[in-house]
Amino acid sequence: MALDDEIALLRRLDFFDVFEQDQLRLMLFAADRRVLRPHEILFMRGDAAQEGYLVQSGLVALLSDDSQVVEQVRPGMLIGEYALLTPGERLTTAVAREATSLIVLPRKLIVRLLTEYPDVAAALRQKLVSRAESFKNAIEKIGEPRL
Predict the structure, then answer these.
(1) Sign of CA dihedral 131, 101, 61, 51
(2) In this structure, what DSSP letter does residue 67 have?
(3) d(CA 31, CA 53)
(4) Average pLDDT value for the chain
(5) Which of 74, 82, 102, 124 is the most buried (most CB within 10 A)?
(6) pTM for the full predicted model
């Protein structure tokens, strides 16, 4: 996939829309690529989450402990958004359902870019705070009595 196509994939994701074109280009130059065969495991539940994965082609299933499909991740979708910013562990197991191409985005790469571009870090922080506030409000409404 051409670099401009990869940038277009990132641009479609809310997380990356605060980055400028040149910053996305730098990110993609430094990112790794990985190809999975059908049924190959990307990671297991409990593994350290140190990177995010942008699916370029193929299909990845995220599985629960009892191997039930929690989510199907298709091209243009991101696996592990929180892993781009903070340490943690994988909550699901990820398995390729077909031949799959991924862009591997290590946390250290994202953190380095955010450190070098504090205005982008501030914009991303505001975006995530707003998203968390919306989530909080939605949860609060669940417990409210209906009239």
Answers:
(1) negative
(2) S
(3) 10
(4) 94
(5) 102
(6) 0.88
Using CA atoms of 137, 78, 126, 124 in order, give the dihedral in degrees to the nearest 10. 170
pLDDT at position 144: 72
Name which of 29, 36, 82 is nearest 55 in CA terms. 36
How far apart, in whole angstroms, are the C-alpha atoms of residue 7 and residue 134? 28
The structural domains of the chain, ordered by start, are 3-142 (2.60.120.10)
SS3 (DSSP) at 89: strand
Token pair in block for residue 145: 């009595």
Closest CA to 25 of 9, 8, 3, 5: 3
> Distances in Å between the alpha carbon of 10 and those of 1, 21, 38, 72, 141?
13, 10, 24, 18, 32
Give yes or no for a contact between 120 and 18, defined as CB atoms under 8 angstroms apart.
Answer: yes
CA 120 – CA 45 distance, rounded (Å): 31
Count other Cβ atoms within 10 Å, centred on residue 21.
10
**Model confidence pLDDT, tens digit, residues 41-84:** 999 999 999 999 999 999 999 999 998 999 999 999 999 999 99
Tokens of 5: 């196509």
